[in-house]
Specification:
Blueprint (H helix, E strand, L loop, with lengths): L10 H20 L5 H4 L5 E6 L1 H4 L4 H10 L2 E4 L5 H4 L9 H12 L3 E9 L5 H4 L4 H18 L6 E6 L12 H6 L3 H12 L4 E6 L5 H16 L6 E4 L2 E3 L5 H12 L4 E10 L31 H20 L4 E6 L32 H18 L1
Parallel strand pairs: 1-2, 1-9, 2-3, 3-4, 4-5, 5-6, 6-8, 7-8, 8-9
Helix pairs in contact: 1-4, 8-10, 13-14
Length: 382
């Protein structure tokens, strides 16, 4: 999902970063820190979404931590249409090529994100009025980008977030101008342009029964049309205090019955209050800042840290229970400071949704996630 936020970096902030790099880097490289990718190597791949600085290895701590911990990567923003295809006939492949090189260098799976999405479209597409223009963009965009990276990346999120919460098709420019078959057509084009790349449908809240039914309908329609779909990505933007574990488990089972891979593609567990008391993850939803909605600006209380830790423990225990059905778990970011949840749905908040803190240090949840595997292995040994 998301989601681009532009931050101004002051000279003093850069100085602090440089000053802290040597100590933090030393701590990461010299510690006996267990590795997520190695711990779960027989179960599923473990991924992270990378931003531009991390792709270019300009963030020293991430340059150490990412190859140590992860064996799959997804670009957080740089393959979205407004960046990679900013104007008619103009493509910007610089950072996309760099993430391919990064993945190849570190022998990682690379998931392309995303070909068709209603949000973060370039301005020239948002101004389109006629169906022919939208179709031309749609076709050229998929053919050019999917074709360029075929055989170089592992997979594509071909269509992203095409559903409303009730399971009906989202009222997007693609539905409006191209009709209900645009998803089938997107996968058909991707299948032809990228025959050596896996093709996925990706969305949030599709563990919820109504929206899950909509996703299942999309997958069955593709299969009935003879168009290839290899997997489904459940994004996993949840609240640590309200984990829908029953719905998640049912979704793993139901999607796997369709004969496709099941992945959790944008995992983060927020700890801040949600203005609408929901797990919605629509980037276009916004709310006003207030101190009440940003309760932990100076650090996470032990009680909330414990809830986050338990939520991750319960979730990974469930993942391991269904490890034969799950192929990948990707975290939406490397550390808390990078997370899009600091700026959505309210800008300027301090959230703590990932396994590594703002200094790239592992949190208690990191060790508890590791233990879901190591302790279960120890029990089997006896």
């Amino acid at each position: 999902m998301l989601h681009k936020f532009t931050f101004a970096i002051t000279v003093s902030a850069i100085s602090l970063l440089i000053a802290g790099c040597s100590n933090s880097k030393k701590a990461i490289s010299s510690s006996e820190l267990p590795s997520l990718k190695e711990t779960f190597q027989k179960d599923f791949t473990i991924g992270a979404a990378l931003n531009g600085l991390q792709i270019e290895e300009k963030e020293p701590n991430a340059a150490v931590l990412v190859p140590q911990q992860f064996n799959a990567i997804t670009p957080e923003n740089i393959m979205k249409a407004e960046i990679i295809h900013p104007e008619w006939g103009k493509y910007n492949f610089d950072l996309a090529d760099k993430i391919v090189a990064y993945g190849q260098k570190h022998k990682m799976e690379i998931n392309g994100h995303t070909l068709i999405w209603h949000s973060q479209l370039p301005a020239f597409v948002r101004r389109m009025k006629d169906a022919d223009s939208v179709r031309r963009f749609f076709t050229d965009h998929i053919n050019t980008i999917a074709g360029r990276y075929d055989g170089k990346i592992t997979s594509w999120d071909v269509v992203n977030e095409a559903l409303e919460e009730d399971g009906s098709l989202r009222k997007s420019i693609f539905l409006e101008k191209l009709g209900e078959d645009y998803i089938v057509e997107a996968f058909r084009l991707a299948q032809k342009a990228a025959p050596n790349t896996k093709l996925y449908y990706n969305d949030y809240n599709i563990e919820q029964p109504k929206k899950r039914a909509g996703a299942i309908a999309i997958i069955k329609k593709l299969q009935a049309a003879g168009v290839r779909i290899d997997g489904v990505g459940i994004q996993g933007h949840w609240r640590a205090s309200n984990m829908p574990l029953k719905d998640i488990e049912e979704s793993i089972v139901e999607f796997s019955k369709l004969g496709i891979e099941v992945m959790f593609t944008e995992l983060d567990l927020g700890v801040l209050p949600n203005p609408w008391d929901s797990d919605a993850a629509d980037v276009n939803m916004k709310a006003e800042y207030s101190a009440k909605m940003n309760p932990y600006p100076n650090g996470l209380p032990d009680s909330i840290q414990a809830k986050l830790t338990k939520a991750y423990e319960d979730l990974f225990s469930l993942f391991l229970k269904h490890k034969e059905k799950i192929s990948r778990i990707t975290f939406w970011g490397v550390n808390d400071g990078q997370s899009w949840l600091n700026g959505w749905p309210i800008r300027g908040r301090t959230n703590y949704p990932l396994l590594f803190d703002r200094e790239f240090k592992p949190k208690p949840a990191f060790y508890r996630v590791i233990e879901t595997k190591t302790k279960s292995t120890e029990k089997k040994a006896f």
